[in-house]
Amino acid sequence: MTPPTHFAVTYAINPWMHPGVPVDTDRALAQWNTLRDIYLSLGHAVLTVDPQPGLPDMVYAANGGLVTENTVVAAQFTHPQRAAEGPAYADWFTGQGYRDVGHTTLPNEGEGDLLVVGDRILAGTGFRTHRDTHAEIAHLTGMEVITLELVDPVFYHLDTALGVLDDDTIAYHPAAFSPASQDALAALFPDAVLVGAEDAAVLGLNFVSDGLHVVMTDAAPDLALSLAAAGFRPITVDLSELLKGGGGVKCCTLELRHAPPVTDRSDHDPVAHNYSPLPVVAHSAEGAWITDVDGDRYLDCLAAYSAVNFGHRNPTVLAAVTDQLSRLTLTSRAFHSDRLRPFCADLAALCGKQMVLPMNTGAEAVESALKVARKWGYERKGVPDGAATIIVAGGNFHGRTISIVSFSDDPEARDGFGPFTPGFRSVPYGDVDAIAAAMDDTVVAVLVEPVQGEAGVVVPTDGYLPGIRRLCDAHSALMICDEIQSGLGRTGHTLAVQHWDVMPDMITLGKALGGGVIPVSAVVADRSVLGVLQPGQHGSTFGGNPLAAAVGQTVVGMLADGSWQRRAADLGAHLHERLGGLIGHGVTAVRGLGLWAGVDVDPSAGTGKEICLRLAAEGVLAKDTHGSTLRFAPPLVITHDEIDWAVDRLATVVSRGPSVSER
User: Fold this and answer.
1) What's the chain's average pLDDT?
2) 482 carries an active-site annotation
């Protein structure tokens, strides 16, 4: 793909182009980014070509050449305005490590007119690619080439009138072809999807299919429904700005059917690909709503995994931030600040504890708790040095640091990151007897999430957490509860463990503690536990900084009267009632507490990622986990009506199966 950095309409070489119509380059880039992100979200690799000044149509990368399973053919353009693109793409192929890049003597405009269907090539002619070039393509690729004549100048490239769905199936608009070519297509593809003039006229056929998912324009709803009926899964995208140059999804996408020998899969993107985000580019937010770069609004039903519990840009939090920014932001812990002790005192009181160890991220809080537990075990319990053991639960998610992934059973988090930190013993979540069997004199702590969020918002049976408390008391071990996602109002209590009237020895907090503004985390415990730390044994430059302390203390103050907790409980009951009504109608199970729900979608309706893509198209943002499970964790500022609005859209996308969602 080639970013539309220099995209403009300064000349007219097809009926779509009108130089007098202004082009919004920023909007074109945002739409292009969305398309690229869709490919990445589907698991495809995306490589980019550097755009060149003076070549505004270079964004239509499909015209740059043809890459079959064993051959690369560079393009040769018909019009002089695009002529320089041919050498630019040829140089890119060579730079990527492709050898023996082929060239034709007469014009060929790459995948604009050369579409691979299984072991043959459909080759268009009539407006751009010369008919005699087809024989050259057959010679260069060693594949059968079938000539198709285009007769309507609106469909000047083959990829505007015909789309390849898989190795045996195509969709096409018959009226774009000569009678002889119509007869040839009918004979070759009797089961093709035939497309009418209305959907063809918006470049509906200019799509990209991986054999299941069809990425296409959002302006061809009838075609999307036809593709869904044929067993494909349409994913729609707005490319209206790029349509001003006569191109769509396929025009922007050159498919590489064999990888370059030397491939930079960084996509020239400076952001490491450790996430696979939905194709939504956020620009602003307020309350429970996010607005993207195109001005479309989305109801945020994830709240940054509970980090935005109190809503985006909460005015109380922002006021505290603004005030502190005007005075002092960072001193490090080498000096005192006037914000640290009040924050720690208030947080300890909120949690019913005596001391707070402030850190930054949730993973830091968990790592800190593990260190404290080991030191406590050696100094207070008398475990031999180096022998401390910590019991953890299967299906856990406590972060992605080396020590934490050492006891993860998620292959994506763990594979490829060894050797691992020893000293952890994993047992099934929810099984008190397994913890009892794992107990011995070396066990210093049991670490558990009161509710497992990443695992799908799994709520334990009523006896689980009280049973852990009794076992830890009996064996002189610490009970550590990770409340980073579940704490600070999310489940209807300040802490999730309060649902079972349990008090852990250590509590890890994060996410919501930062008010949706900055990372703030903490370990909260009594002096008998946190008191084992001495100066120099643990620390963080930013941990407990004045700005973080100001935000954290504000969050604690907001929770002090219980109103946020009551709101989460009341609205959570409504959320679960509405979600429960979907069971048997595209949903198989619903779990959770308060404004937190795990929703198991019938796999026949699609994967969790596919459902989330459809929800995003409907204006709802949620997150999948583990196959067909979705997580809903909206900000606590969400309203009763907004919950209904979101659930109604979920009902729509799961009930109609793997179809298109229209915005």
Assistant:
1) 94
2) yes
Token pair for residue 537?
Answer: 């044994």
Q: Pick the catalytic residue from 375, 511, 609, 623.
A: 511
Q: What is the pLDDT of residue 268?
A: 58
Percentage of residues of the chain with pLDDT beyond 90: 86
Question: Span 323-327, mean pLDDT?
Answer: 96
Catalytic residue among 7, 93, 310, 397: 397
- 397 is an active site residue: yes
Look-up of token digits 């070396």 = 442
In 3D space, the residue among 6, 142, 130 whose CA is nearest the CA of residue 77 turns out to be 130
Q: pLDDT value at position 663?
A: 27
Fold of 25-252: L-arginine/glycine Amidinotransferase; Chain A (3.75.10)
The correct CATH number of 282-307+564-655 out of 3.40.710.10, 3.90.1150.10, 3.10.20.600, 1.10.3210.10 is 3.90.1150.10
258-281 confidence digits (pLDDT tens): 877 754 444 556 778 787 788 888
The DSSP secondary structure of 524-559, one letter per residue, reads EE-HHHHTT--TTSS--SSTT-HHHHHHHHHHHHHH
Give the span between the Cα atoms of 348 and 537, in whole angstroms.
21
Give the pLDDT band of residue 476 (cuts 50, 70, 90): very high
- Give rounded-to-5 percent helix, strand, coil for the chain: 35, 20, 50
What is the tens place of the pLDDT at every residue in 110-123? Answer: 999 999 999 999 99
Q: What is the DSSP string of 97-148?
A: T--S-B--SS-B-GGGTEEEETTEEEEEESSSS-TTHHHHHHHHH-SEEEEE
Closest by CA position to 619, among listed 590, 661, 585, 588: 661
Catalytic site residue from 113, 482, 600, 624: 482
pTM of the model: 0.67
At which residue do the structure tokens 């109103």 appear? 563
**Count of H helices and E strands in the chain?**
19, 26
